[in-house]
Amino acid sequence: MVRGTEIMSDVKQYILERSARDPEFAEGFDLGYTDFKIGVLLRQAREAAGLTQEQVARQLGTQKSAISRMENHAEDVRLSTLRAYAKAVGADLHISLAPMRS
Q1: Whole-angstrom Cα distance, residue 80 to residue 101?
Q2: Are 48 and 62 in contact (CB under 8 A)?
């Protein structure tokens, strides 16, 4: 498992170096990473509730593919959709704002 850690540190090092010299990359990476994190949180909450994507989709009145898209590509998810998703998986939605990193 050491090799996996080395690869991850190589990836982190690349991201840090590239972000330092390429502000456009840094901004795009941060936005993409935020979307990715939201999708992961949605999937984790659904799995913790013991629900399938299909079950959540039924509760939201949508298709399984829509739930999959939210969990895998969480960009531009409406706040009302996040609230409904949270309710469907028996969770509360909490949003916070943090100072921007410079």
Answers
A1: 27
A2: no
Strand (E) or helix (H) holding 17: helix 2-21
Q: What is the pLDDT of residues 87-101, one digit of tens each?
A: 999 999 998 888 877
- The count of C-alpha atoms lying within 13 angstroms of the C-alpha of 9, restricted to the half-sphere facing its C-beta, is 6
Measured CA to CA, the distance from residue 50 to residue 54 in angstroms comes to 12
Task: Tell me the longest C-alpha to C-alpha distance in the chain.
Answer: 46
Contact between residue 42 and residue 70 where contact means Cβ atoms under 8 Å apart: yes
Entry pTM:
0.67
With 50 as the cut, is the pLDDT of residue 1 above it? no
